[in-house]
Amino acid sequence: MWHIAADSGVLDTNSSYAYLMWCRDFTATSVVAEIGRTVAGFVIGYRRPEAPDTLFVWQVAVDHPYRGLGLGVTMLDRLWDGLARQGVSKLETTISPDNKASIAMFSALARRRDCLLTDWPLFDRPDFPDSHEPERLYRITPKPTEE
Length: 147
Ligand SMILES: CC(C)(COP(=O)(O)OP(=O)(O)OC[C@H]1O[C@@H](n2cnc3c(N)ncnc32)[C@H](O)[C@@H]1OP(=O)(O)O)[C@@H](O)C(=O)NCCC(=O)NCCS
Description:
With about 150 residues, the protein is an alpha+beta fold. About 30% of the residues lie in helices and about 35% in strands. It has helices spanning about 1-10, 15-25, 70-85, 100-110, and strands at about 30-35, 40-50, 50-60, 90-95, 115-125, 135-140.
């Protein structure tokens, strides 16, 4: 996971220790995709402590050779399927405005699950102490039921 994040050229690479701790403590809300014996992609997330019906996706990445095969959206879809049985009905993530692949993938996930996708600013440049890109909050929620 650490190698894939570092090689992505896009993600903030957390420390290798952080990924190990994530695998220890957040397995229920994370997934790794293996092709043969190779880790091809991963999703790490958590249920928001103050909104346990919401899965926050911290990072999702697919290693370069395996991109464009539907792996990213499939990992998210399957992770959500498993958590839906425990009451998770909403998904959130943040995306930098220039990350077209990520926006396309979460849009595809919302379509696949027949949900609404909304987004608005969350963190702007001055919120970060370094030269981080802005992050917009994307939410995928069930469509309101018609009376
Ligand atoms: C974002 C990422 C995980 C997508 O993984 P992937 O397995 O290649 O994506 P999928 O094959 O599941 O594609 C899902 C949808 O996104 C679209 N998509 C994927 N990559 C795209 C790109 N570079 N440009 C435009 N659309 C793209 C696909 O066409 C598909 O849409 P469709 O169902 O309408 O055809 C991968 O590009 C990646 O690891 N990027 C670097 C890390 C990153 O940016 N992570 C997200 C922020 S946390």
